[in-house]
Amino acid sequence: MLELKSLKKSYHQGSQTIRIFEDLNFHVQEGERVAIMGKSGSGKSTFLSLISGIIKPDAGDITLNTVSYKELKESQLNDFRAMNIGFIFQNFHLVSYLNALENVMLPAKVCKVSKPKEKAIKLLERVGLGHRLDHLPSELSGGEKQRVAIARALIHNPKIILADEPSGNLDDQTGNSVMDSLFELIKQNHTTLILVTHSKEVAARCEKTYELVQGNLKLC
Ligand SMILES: Nc1ncnc2c1ncn2[C@@H]1O[C@H](COP(=O)(O)OP(=O)(O)OP(=O)(O)O)[C@@H](O)[C@H]1O
Ligand SMILES: [Mg+2]
Protein backbone atom coordinates (compact mmCIF):
# COMPACT_ATOMS: atom_id res chain seq x y z
CA MET A 1 0.00 0.00 0.00
CA LEU A 2 2.86 2.33 0.96
CA GLU A 3 6.33 1.62 -0.29
CA LEU A 4 9.59 3.53 0.17
CA LYS A 5 12.35 2.48 -2.18
CA SER A 6 16.03 3.32 -1.75
CA LEU A 7 15.32 6.70 -0.18
CA LYS A 8 18.16 9.09 0.30
CA LYS A 9 17.84 12.32 2.26
CA SER A 10 20.36 14.81 3.60
CA TYR A 11 19.96 18.31 4.95
CA HIS A 12 22.48 21.00 4.10
CA GLN A 13 23.27 23.56 6.76
CA GLY A 14 25.96 25.95 5.57
CA SER A 15 28.93 23.77 4.70
CA GLN A 16 27.60 20.91 6.81
CA THR A 17 25.75 17.92 5.39
CA ILE A 18 23.44 16.05 7.77
CA ARG A 19 22.82 12.62 6.35
CA ILE A 20 19.50 11.21 7.54
CA PHE A 21 18.78 8.35 5.11
CA GLU A 22 21.28 6.69 2.76
CA ASP A 23 19.19 3.78 1.46
CA LEU A 24 15.90 3.45 3.27
CA ASN A 25 13.44 0.76 2.25
CA PHE A 26 10.11 0.28 3.94
CA HIS A 27 6.59 -0.87 3.27
CA VAL A 28 3.24 -0.88 5.04
CA GLN A 29 0.17 -2.87 4.14
CA GLU A 30 -3.34 -1.51 3.99
CA GLY A 31 -4.94 -1.25 7.42
CA GLU A 32 -1.64 -1.95 9.18
CA ARG A 33 -0.71 0.07 12.26
CA VAL A 34 2.98 0.73 12.61
CA ALA A 35 4.88 2.51 15.38
CA ILE A 36 8.18 4.27 14.76
CA MET A 37 10.49 4.85 17.70
CA GLY A 38 14.00 6.22 17.87
CA LYS A 39 16.16 8.79 19.57
CA SER A 40 15.57 12.50 19.20
CA GLY A 41 17.20 13.62 15.97
CA SER A 42 17.18 10.14 14.42
CA GLY A 43 14.94 11.34 11.59
CA LYS A 44 11.42 10.25 12.57
CA SER A 45 9.73 13.52 11.63
CA THR A 46 11.79 13.65 8.45
CA PHE A 47 10.52 10.15 7.63
CA LEU A 48 6.89 11.30 8.01
CA SER A 49 7.54 14.47 5.99
CA LEU A 50 8.94 12.35 3.15
CA ILE A 51 5.88 10.08 3.21
CA SER A 52 3.61 13.12 3.14
CA GLY A 53 5.53 14.50 0.16
CA ILE A 54 6.12 17.78 2.02
CA ILE A 55 9.86 17.25 1.62
CA LYS A 56 11.46 15.50 -1.31
CA PRO A 57 14.03 12.72 -1.14
CA ASP A 58 17.40 13.31 -2.83
CA ALA A 59 16.97 9.91 -4.52
CA GLY A 60 14.58 6.99 -4.44
CA ASP A 61 10.80 6.98 -4.67
CA ILE A 62 7.65 6.62 -2.62
CA THR A 63 4.53 4.87 -3.84
CA LEU A 64 1.17 5.18 -2.11
CA ASN A 65 -1.67 3.10 -3.51
CA THR A 66 0.33 2.43 -6.69
CA VAL A 67 0.86 6.18 -7.29
CA SER A 68 4.53 7.11 -7.57
CA TYR A 69 5.35 10.53 -6.09
CA LYS A 70 8.04 10.97 -8.71
CA GLU A 71 5.43 10.90 -11.43
CA LEU A 72 3.37 13.70 -9.86
CA LYS A 73 3.82 17.43 -10.45
CA GLU A 74 3.96 19.66 -7.37
CA SER A 75 0.27 20.66 -7.59
CA GLN A 76 -0.79 17.06 -8.23
CA LEU A 77 1.21 15.92 -5.22
CA ASN A 78 -0.47 18.59 -3.06
CA ASP A 79 -3.92 17.39 -4.16
CA PHE A 80 -2.92 13.76 -3.72
CA ARG A 81 -1.69 14.49 -0.18
CA ALA A 82 -4.88 16.37 0.72
CA MET A 83 -7.07 13.52 -0.49
CA ASN A 84 -5.14 10.55 0.84
CA ILE A 85 -3.24 11.55 3.96
CA GLY A 86 -4.36 12.74 7.39
CA PHE A 87 -1.95 14.35 9.87
CA ILE A 88 -1.86 14.53 13.63
CA PHE A 89 0.91 16.52 15.29
CA GLN A 90 2.34 16.74 18.78
CA ASN A 91 1.27 20.38 19.15
CA PHE A 92 -2.14 19.92 17.52
CA HIS A 93 -1.79 22.56 14.74
CA LEU A 94 -5.35 23.77 15.09
CA VAL A 95 -6.39 27.07 13.52
CA SER A 96 -6.70 29.43 16.49
CA TYR A 97 -9.61 31.56 15.18
CA LEU A 98 -11.78 28.60 14.14
CA ASN A 99 -13.89 26.69 16.62
CA ALA A 100 -13.71 22.91 17.06
CA LEU A 101 -16.39 22.20 14.46
CA GLU A 102 -14.83 24.58 11.90
CA ASN A 103 -11.38 23.08 12.46
CA VAL A 104 -12.69 19.59 11.78
CA MET A 105 -14.53 20.77 8.67
CA LEU A 106 -11.42 22.45 7.28
CA PRO A 107 -10.16 19.61 5.02
CA ALA A 108 -13.69 18.74 3.91
CA LYS A 109 -13.95 21.52 1.32
CA VAL A 110 -10.72 20.70 -0.52
CA CYS A 111 -11.56 17.01 -0.43
CA LYS A 112 -15.18 17.55 -1.46
CA VAL A 113 -16.59 15.61 1.47
CA SER A 114 -20.36 15.35 1.24
CA LYS A 115 -22.41 16.61 4.22
CA PRO A 116 -19.25 17.93 5.96
CA LYS A 117 -21.07 19.50 8.91
CA GLU A 118 -22.98 16.34 9.81
CA LYS A 119 -19.84 14.29 9.43
CA ALA A 120 -17.75 16.67 11.56
CA ILE A 121 -20.35 16.71 14.33
CA LYS A 122 -20.51 12.91 14.28
CA LEU A 123 -16.72 12.63 14.51
CA LEU A 124 -16.54 15.14 17.35
CA GLU A 125 -19.25 13.21 19.18
CA ARG A 126 -17.29 10.01 18.62
CA VAL A 127 -14.21 11.50 20.27
CA GLY A 128 -16.32 12.75 23.18
CA LEU A 129 -16.51 16.42 22.21
CA GLY A 130 -20.14 16.77 21.20
CA HIS A 131 -20.50 19.41 23.92
CA ARG A 132 -17.52 21.50 22.76
CA LEU A 133 -18.37 22.20 19.11
CA ASP A 134 -18.17 25.98 19.35
CA HIS A 135 -15.10 26.21 21.57
CA LEU A 136 -12.01 27.87 20.15
CA PRO A 137 -8.70 25.97 20.60
CA SER A 138 -7.80 28.39 23.41
CA GLU A 139 -10.98 27.26 25.18
CA LEU A 140 -10.06 23.56 25.02
CA SER A 141 -7.72 21.42 27.12
CA GLY A 142 -4.68 19.75 25.53
CA GLY A 143 -6.43 16.38 25.31
CA GLU A 144 -9.51 18.00 23.81
CA LYS A 145 -7.39 19.84 21.23
CA GLN A 146 -5.81 16.56 20.21
CA ARG A 147 -9.25 14.94 19.86
CA VAL A 148 -10.26 17.79 17.54
CA ALA A 149 -7.07 17.17 15.55
CA ILE A 150 -7.92 13.46 15.32
CA ALA A 151 -11.43 14.20 14.07
CA ARG A 152 -10.00 16.65 11.54
CA ALA A 153 -7.45 14.11 10.31
CA LEU A 154 -10.23 11.61 9.62
CA ILE A 155 -13.01 13.72 8.11
CA HIS A 156 -12.06 12.92 4.51
CA ASN A 157 -11.49 9.20 5.14
CA PRO A 158 -7.79 9.29 4.27
CA LYS A 159 -6.03 6.11 3.25
CA ILE A 160 -3.30 6.73 5.76
CA ILE A 161 -2.80 8.70 8.97
CA LEU A 162 0.63 10.06 9.86
CA ALA A 163 0.89 10.90 13.55
CA ASP A 164 3.97 12.58 15.01
CA GLU A 165 4.07 12.05 18.78
CA PRO A 166 0.33 12.71 19.14
CA SER A 167 0.36 12.07 22.88
CA GLY A 168 3.76 13.67 23.48
CA ASN A 169 2.31 16.82 25.05
CA LEU A 170 -0.30 15.06 27.18
CA ASP A 171 -0.17 13.42 30.59
CA ASP A 172 -0.28 9.60 30.53
CA GLN A 173 -3.94 9.26 31.35
CA THR A 174 -5.11 11.88 28.85
CA GLY A 175 -2.70 10.52 26.25
CA ASN A 176 -4.10 7.03 26.69
CA SER A 177 -7.67 8.10 26.33
CA VAL A 178 -6.82 10.19 23.24
CA MET A 179 -5.09 7.11 21.80
CA ASP A 180 -8.22 5.05 22.56
CA SER A 181 -10.22 7.48 20.40
CA LEU A 182 -7.68 7.37 17.58
CA PHE A 183 -7.38 3.59 17.49
CA GLU A 184 -11.13 3.07 17.68
CA LEU A 185 -11.76 5.37 14.72
CA ILE A 186 -8.99 4.03 12.49
CA LYS A 187 -9.95 0.44 13.22
CA GLN A 188 -13.46 1.09 12.06
CA ASN A 189 -12.31 2.80 8.85
CA HIS A 190 -9.50 0.31 8.22
CA THR A 191 -7.12 3.28 8.00
CA THR A 192 -3.40 2.63 7.81
CA LEU A 193 -1.46 4.32 10.62
CA ILE A 194 2.17 5.35 10.95
CA LEU A 195 2.67 6.57 14.48
CA VAL A 196 5.85 8.16 15.78
CA THR A 197 6.10 7.84 19.53
CA HIS A 198 8.58 7.77 22.39
CA SER A 199 6.19 5.64 24.45
CA LYS A 200 6.52 1.85 24.44
CA GLU A 201 2.94 1.56 25.70
CA VAL A 202 1.60 3.58 22.80
CA ALA A 203 3.77 1.59 20.37
CA ALA A 204 2.39 -1.67 21.81
CA ARG A 205 -1.03 -0.77 20.41
CA CYS A 206 0.39 -1.19 16.90
CA GLU A 207 0.98 -4.47 15.05
CA LYS A 208 4.59 -3.63 14.37
CA THR A 209 7.17 -1.40 15.99
CA TYR A 210 10.31 -0.21 14.23
CA GLU A 211 13.25 1.62 15.68
CA LEU A 212 15.00 4.18 13.56
CA VAL A 213 18.73 3.76 14.07
CA GLN A 214 21.36 5.38 11.89
CA GLY A 215 19.00 5.82 8.99
CA ASN A 216 17.61 2.29 9.07
CA LEU A 217 14.30 0.97 10.37
CA LYS A 218 14.79 -2.11 12.52
CA LEU A 219 11.81 -4.25 13.43
CA CYS A 220 11.59 -4.59 17.23
N1 LIG B 1 15.18 21.60 7.66
C1 LIG B 1 16.26 21.12 8.26
N2 LIG B 1 17.50 21.61 7.98
C2 LIG B 1 18.60 21.11 8.55
N3 LIG B 1 18.61 20.10 9.45
C3 LIG B 1 17.41 19.57 9.78
C4 LIG B 1 16.19 20.05 9.21
N4 LIG B 1 15.17 19.32 9.73
C5 LIG B 1 15.74 18.45 10.58
N5 LIG B 1 17.08 18.59 10.62
C6 LIG B 1 18.02 17.75 11.40
O1 LIG B 1 17.83 16.41 11.00
C7 LIG B 1 17.85 15.52 12.10
C8 LIG B 1 16.57 14.70 12.14
O2 LIG B 1 15.50 15.57 12.47
P1 LIG B 1 14.03 15.02 12.77
O3 LIG B 1 13.19 16.21 13.09
O4 LIG B 1 13.59 14.18 11.63
O5 LIG B 1 14.29 14.12 14.07
P2 LIG B 1 13.27 13.35 15.02
O6 LIG B 1 13.69 11.93 15.07
O7 LIG B 1 11.88 13.65 14.61
O8 LIG B 1 13.56 14.01 16.46
P3 LIG B 1 12.57 14.30 17.70
O9 LIG B 1 12.33 12.99 18.40
O10 LIG B 1 13.36 15.25 18.56
O11 LIG B 1 11.31 14.93 17.16
C9 LIG B 1 18.07 16.39 13.33
O12 LIG B 1 19.42 16.29 13.72
C10 LIG B 1 17.73 17.79 12.88
O13 LIG B 1 18.51 18.75 13.53
MG1 LIG C 1 10.26 14.69 15.51
Automatic annotation (TrEMBL):
UniProt domain ABC transporter: residue ranges: 2-219
Organism superkingdom: Bacteria
GO cellular component: membrane protein complex
Keyword annotations from UniProtKB, A to Z: ATP-binding, Nucleotide-binding, Transport
Record's keyword annotation contains Zinc: no
CDD domains registered for this protein in UniProt: ABC_MJ0796_LolCDE_FtsE (cd03255)
UniProt GO molecular function: ATP binding; ATP hydrolysis activity; transmembrane transporter activity
Family to which this protein belongs: Belongs to the ABC transporter superfamily. Macrolide exporter (TC 3.A.1.122) family.
Protein name according to UniProt: ABC transporter ATP-binding protein
